[in-house]
Specification:
With 356 residues, this protein is α/β, with parallel strands linked by helices. The chain contains twelve helices and 18 strands. α3 packs parallel to α4 and α11 crosses α12. The chain is elongated. Bound molecules: pyridoxal-5'-phosphate.
């Protein structure tokens, strides 16, 4: 039998629950809410929400359409819509019991003029992205402040524990508390979560850590990767000295080599900038450097160090030896973007390992 050559994307839902349980212990009394926007960073929102049944009861999405998907998997959960909402979203908000995160004075005024339903409020403390500015709080009526059930802000530099903006944002956040008598407070996402107890507040909003993305030594060994990617070797060949590989002939063999053509390219979400020696595939822990430019459907790699590789074998693209965080360093990006891109690949055979 000849094996199928489609690339494989595997999701380990056991790793999601493992990571959640590990984070729960670190969170002490703070509630853990899960960010499942962007299809749970490519992991698959429906599967993640399902895997966390009985554990997590609060989810964050970006858009109402995403909230609808989460609702179908979590009938009882609280679901917050981060990017705000418009008039056309109102029927879905109601039907799927989604709570908007409002980020401006006009939005609060509009929302409270049309409904008595709860809302969360994003307040700006230093990221200068979405958020009501602290000086605008005075323009909220006392009723609007009382109706605010969750106050959020978002950190700018939490990946650098020594950055002074962290403490400044925390201080600005603490100063908001006297204005909102009925609210819970949430400041941190994954990286802020690791900054210390004062950053935990009532609720942390976790995405990356849940999906096994993190570069900090403190938790790296305790967090398990969730996504792995494999691709088929379509062909192998001896590459004679002096021959070049792929478009533009930018790679030239200085000695005879063994080459494998792998069925995965930028059309599947592999960053094209990983070509020309920057990226690699893996054969267990053995590194197989990419040779020449990455194509839409194929990438060539050097298998001189693993001459036993043959057509039909699958090499690892993301595995325990080469995680999304490590690939991100080679691609000059962050692990978030690596998994979110692969997650959008339409040509993968998707395997979901259920929780045991
Ligand atoms: C995406 C997002 C999160 C989750 O961030 P991670 O770094 O993945 O934990 C939390 N809060 C807000 C407002 C977000 O946009």
């Amino acid at each position: 039998m000849k094996t199928s050559v489609e690339p494989v994307l595997e999701i380990d839902l056991g790793a999601v629950t493992h990571n959640y349980d590990y984070l729960s212990k670190l969170a002490q009394k703070a509630q853990i809410a899960c960010a499942v926007k962007d299809d749970a960073y490519g992991i698959g929102a429906k599967n993640v929400v399902r895997a966390l049944k009985g554990r997590c009861s609060t989810f964050f999405v970006a858009y109402v359409s995403e909230g609808q998907i989460v609702r179908s998997a979590a009938p009882e959960a609280e679901i917050y819509v981060l990017q705000g909402v418009g008039t056309q979203d109102l029927p879905l908000l109601k039907a799927y019991r989604l709570t908007p995160v409002l980020s401006s004075l006009p939005d609060v005024q509009w929302w409270t003029s049309i409904t008595d339903d709860d809302y969360a409020l994003m307040i700006e403390t230093g990221l200068n992205r979405l958020g009501l500015r602290p000086e605008e709080i005075n323009a909220l009526t006392s009723l609007q402040r009382e109706k605010t059930t969750l106050v959020l802000s978002h950190l700018s530099c939490a990946d650098d524990p020594t950055h002074p903006l962290n403490d400044l944002q925390l201080a600005r956040f603490q100063a908001l508390k006297s204005f909102f008598p009925n609210a819970r407070f949430s400041l941190s996402a994954s990286e802020g979560f690791l900054l210390g107890a004062s950053y935990l507040q009532d609720m942390v909003r976790i995405g990356a850590l849940l999906y096994g993305i993190n570069r900090s030594e403190a938790v790296k060994s305790s967090i398990r990767p969730v996504m792995s990617v494999k691709a088929a070797v379509l062909q192998t060949a001896i590459l004679p000295k002096g021959e070049s590989v792929s478009y533009g002939a930018v790679f030239k063999a200085e000695k005879e080599m063994r080459l494998a053509v792998v069925g995965l390219g930028y059309g599947d979400g592999l960053f094209r900038c990983l070509g020309e020696g920057k990226g690699a595939f893996y054969w267990q822990e053995r590194r197989l450097p990419v040779l020449g430019r990455i194509c839409m459907d194929c990438t060539m790699c050097d298998i001189t160090s693993a001459p036993d590789i043959k057509p039909g074998d699958f090499v690892d693209v993301l595995n325990a030896f080469y995680t999304a965080d490590e690939m991100a360093v080679d691609a000059d990006t962050i692990g978030y973007e690596i998994i979110s891109r692969f997650g959008k690949g339409l040509r993968f055979r998707r395997l979901v390992k259920e929780t045991s």
